[in-house]
């Protein structure tokens, strides 16, 4: 329930390859309970489970794990075979090298490389030749390799920097969820930088855990937000512990042992505010309940701390472009 929702942009972008190939996905969206109206609303969000199912079904429908964005298709099952080839390596460096070698056997596959830079490691993607106007495949590949490596060693690999070969996109605000680290756009290459100490860590996974992991991956890796180190991420975790009680900024600052002024300044430096974080969390909790019909609209409003259902209606429409009732109707 506390997993963050997915911006409608990513669902629209994921369908871009299918549109280019002339594939009619209207029946697929209907089967998944995703309405075209929901996707057309820029502020709308969808549940992570819906996004996972959308990606998995598009793979099968297009017979392509690259979803039509690569020079040539990647047959469904390729990612799983790469994981099976890598899971028996003794450390992360060997596993990543073997995984990248696996994909290098396909001449038209996107090129990724791993390079040491003193105490740092740079995972680079050559995205210059991709048909990827919304950068969906570029984002997906970097996210998947980062989170796959983290899963293999049983701890999140802390990113130090993310660079992108393209200008900051319109959905750039979502990058804090994808890449919780300093980001640079318009760089010479798209890459992720992390400390080399991770490369020597042993793999904690095996064939048994891999089987469970592959049931929803890599779609699950794309839909699951990164549990970042930023102050914004820490506050989201703190606020989500008990959504029935919403502490004010002063109480949160006291909990973090900093002054309210310092808290405001740090959040401003991260491009957000305390109110924005609370609204994002309330939006995601509302979407969770609206998709399940387990609570009435009034009960959801009360749980989110709204004194009047009308205030909840106004806020939800501001967040998503739809009223709660309209959103629930789309989900049924």
From TrEMBL:
InterPro entries: AraC-type_N, Homeodomain-like_sf, HTH_AraC, Tscrpt_reg_AraC-type_HTH. Residues 233-330 form the HTH araC/xylS-type domain. The keyword Repeat does not apply. Keywords: DNA-binding, Transcription, Transcription regulation. Transmembrane segments: none annotated. It holds the Pfam family Arabinose_bd. Gene3D superfamilies: Homeodomain-like. PROSITE patterns: HTH_ARAC_FAMILY_2. It comes from the Bacteria. SMART domains: HTH_ARAC. This is AraC family transcriptional regulator. It comes from Pseudomonas monsensis.
């Amino acid at each position: 329930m506390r997993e963050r929702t997915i911006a409608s942009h990513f669902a629209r972008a994921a369908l871009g390859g299918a549109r280019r190939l002339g594939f009619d996905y209207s029946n697929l969206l209907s089967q998944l309970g995703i309405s075209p109206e929901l996707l057309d609303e820029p502020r709308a969000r969808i549940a992570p489970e819906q996004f996972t199912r959308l990606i998995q079904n598009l793979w099968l429908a297009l017979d392509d794990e690259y979803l039509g964005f690569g020079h040539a298709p990647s047959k469904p099952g390729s990612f799983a075979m790469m994981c099976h080839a890598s899971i028996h390596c003794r450390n992360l460096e060997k596993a990543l090298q073997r995984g990248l070698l696996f994909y290098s056997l396909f001449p038209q596959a996107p090129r990724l490389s791993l390079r040491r830079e003193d105490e740092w490691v740079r995972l680079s993607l050559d995205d210059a030749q991709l048909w990827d106007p919304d950068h969906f495949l570029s984002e997906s590949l970097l996210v998947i390799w980062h989170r796959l490596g983290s899963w293999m060693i049983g701890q999140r690999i802390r990113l130090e920097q993310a660079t992108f070969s393209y200008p900051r996109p319109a959905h750039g605000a979502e990058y804090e969820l994808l890449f919780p680290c300093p980001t640079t756009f318009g760089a010479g290459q798209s890459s992720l930088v992390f400390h080399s100490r991770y490369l020597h860590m042993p793999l904690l996974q095996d064939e048994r855990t891999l089987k469970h992991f592959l049931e929803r991956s890599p779609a699950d890796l794309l839909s699951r937000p990164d549990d970042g180190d930023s102050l914004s991420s820490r506050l989201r975790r703190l606020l989500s512990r008990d959504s029935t009680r919403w502490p004010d900024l002063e109480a949160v600052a006291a909990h973090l042992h900093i002054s309210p002024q310092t808290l405001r300044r740090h959040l401003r430096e991260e491009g957000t505010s305390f109110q924005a974080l609370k609204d994002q969390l309330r939006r995601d909790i509302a979407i969770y309940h609206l998709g399940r019909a387990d609570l009435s609209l009034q009960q959801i409003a009360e749980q989110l701390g709204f004194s009047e259902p009308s205030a909840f209606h106004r806020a939800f429409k501001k967040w998503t472009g739809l009223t709660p009732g309209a959103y629930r109707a789309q989900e049924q």
